Every structure is written in structure tokens, then in C-alpha cells.
Amino acid sequence: MAGQCRREEGRGRQVAGQRRTTSFDIAHLAGVSQPTVSRALRGSPTVSAATRQRIEAIAKQLNYTVDRTASGLRTGHTRTLALLLFKDAAPGGSLINPFFLSMLSAMMTACAEHRHDLLVSFQEMTSDWHVDYEDSHRADGMILLGYGDYESYRWRLDQLVSRGTHFVRWGSVRQGQPGLTIGSDNVAGGRMATEHLLARGRRRIAFLGDATDHHPEDSDRYRGYVEALAATGIVADPALQVMALASEEDGARAAAELLARDLPFDAVLAASDVVALAAMRVFAGAGLAVPEQIAVVGFDDIPAAAIAHPSLTTVVQDTGLAGRTLVETLIARIRGDAAPGVVLPTHLVVRGSTGGI
Predict the structure, then answer these.
(1) 4 or 155, which is more confident?
(2) Under DSSP, is residue 208 helix (H, G, I), strand (E, B) or coil?
């Protein structure tokens, strides 16, 4: 009914006939300029934390919210990041690796803190994902996870770089890679896992994973494994390395192939927890006891690792720190700030599969 109070979405709340709250009102009460209010409410690092908190408190008191559509039109930014998860070519690859899902909460939290939205999309590698988002102004930048064979998609990364697209990917941090990469110290993780098995008296240690540059993270883990063996005078036996992608089906196949080679081995380092857990089931089915006959170490610390029987010893990647770093690094790059690649630390959690708790 005309003349009654109405509540409007957007810039503050307004009673019919009264003026709407603006950023100039907040600036007056905060004792700052209107541009300072705009920068503070966008989360700009050029505004001090104390000033930003004062402005936010006044904005909240006045029920003022930023009109993101209007702000985006003025600045040319959507304040949206696109998280692209890719279907893996491995059997069962239509399922998203639970390791990536564990990053999602941290990404969402970081986006909220920086007043950004996160658009999550599941992609086929055959689609034109490299032009679908920033080029169409659906997002200011992209986070790439789970893209499969590095050698087959690298040309797309080169295209993104040539187009000036803002993106960051999760993977192995190496010199000469296109774009910006955030990843864990996979070499150190492979090394510490192998050193742990050696300390348990294991000497015939198999590796289940891709030791080639098609999957650089696996390759780095294999490198750490080889280095740890060499440090104790053991030469890695190529016959104890079996190709395995990060799926249950491929892990089971690799474990069965390892058994079929009929070579002595007393431990397994798997390049992912998914592969390790599948291998443990194959070993149990073959009447082999873990860890008494075969000790097993995984990589990632997915939720299933702690509740498996026996529980899985694994190399932990800090998914909370990873998710936050991906978001904050991308936002810095979008703003034009320097944003180098980052290598995050790993650590080992010892559980029942190697004789721990």
C-alpha cells in the first residue's frame, strides 16, 4: 500500500519518502572520503584494517550493502572467481577427487572474506573452458583443479597466458611453466614417506603412480622416493613402479599388476590415498596382511584414510592453506600485484597401515 514502509534490496533500507543511504553518508560519519569508503567496502588493501573496520561497522548500522552489479559496471570487474574442476581421463574419472573437495570450504571462506563470489563448474577437457569465463566476463579469473594429463592441456595454458587471462592452477611448481602455479612440496613428501618405510625396516618398496611428466605431481613424489632409497644405498627397481592414476579402479588394477609380476616387495608408496586404499583392498583379497606383510603409505589424507581398516599412513597436504592461497594469489594477480608461485609444506601422519596407531 502507498505510504507504508517498504524494504528494498541493494543500497541500504529505505522508508517511502525518505532518502536512501549512500556511501557519502558513511564517509561523513567515518570522517573519510567517499572513494575511501568504496575501496574499504571492496576489501582493498590500500585501506588500513582499522579504517576498514570502522567503515564496515557504520555500513552495517545503516543497513548499507554494496550494489555489486553497479560496482562491476564501474570497475570492469565481476568480483567473481571461477573454480574449474576437470574430469579425469582415468576410469571412474567422472567422480571428483575428494582431495579437491576438501579445498572447497577454504576457498569459499577466503572468497567471502574478500567479498568475492565463487562460481564452481565441472568441465570436460574437450570443451572450450579456456575462453568461457574471463573472456565472456563471467569471472575476473579462474582457479584450475584436476586437469589430468599435463602434456595434453599445456597448450591451453599457453593460450590463457597469451590472452592475458588471470588464472592460477593447483599442481607441481616448476620453472618454465605457463602461468601461475600453487602446489605442495611433493618431492619432500615422497622422500619423507619412503624414509618412514625404510625406518620400519622395509627394503623392497613399490611405487604406484605415474613417474612421467604427464602427471608432474606424481613424478615429483616418485623423485622423492628414488632420492630416499638412494640415500640408503638402494637403487630403485623399475619393475616395482606401476602406472596408476588417481582412481579406485586404476589403483586396484595397479595393485593386481604388481602382484602378477611375482616380485618380492614389502611396502608400497602410492601417489594418492585413493590408489593406496584400493591397493589395500586388493592385498587383503589376496590374503596379504597390512602392515605385517606389506606396509602402505598414501598421499593426500582424504577423510577415508583415517577410517580405513587399517587406517592409512599418509602424506598430508594442507588443503585449508591451499584453498586460501589459491584464492588470495588469484585476487592479487587480478589487482595487478606481484604474485609468485608458492610451494606449500607437507607432513606425514603415521597410522595403522605402517604399524602406527
Answers:
(1) 155
(2) strand
Q: In what order do the strands lie in the sheet with 241-242?
A: 241-242, 205-208, 267-270, 295-300, 313-317, 346-349
Local structure of residue 327 (DSSP, 8 states)? H
Other C-beta atoms lying within 10 Å of the C-beta of residue 82: 24
Helix 34-41 to helix 23-30 angle (10° resolution) is 100
Q: In which residue are the cell numbers 591397493 written?
A: 279
Q: Is the pLDDT of residue 274 over 80?
A: yes
As a whole number of angstroms, the distance between CA 38 and CA 259 comes to: 64
Give residue 106's pLDDT band: very low, low, confident or very high (50, 70, 90): very high
Distance of alpha carbon 130 from alpha carbon 261, whole angstroms: 42
The stretch 38-62 carries a mean pLDDT of 84
Binned at pLDDT 50, 70 and 90, residue 148 comes out as confident
Phi–psi pair at 304, nearest 5 degrees: -65, -20
Q: How far apart are CA 117 and CA 66, in angstroms?
A: 13
Cell output for 186: 611433493
Task: Name every residue whose Cβ is closer than 8 Å to that of residue 143 and which is 6 or more positions away in sequence.
Answer: 81, 82, 83, 84, 107, 167, 168, 169, 170, 326, 327, 330
Q: How many CB atoms lie within 10 A of CB 76?
A: 8
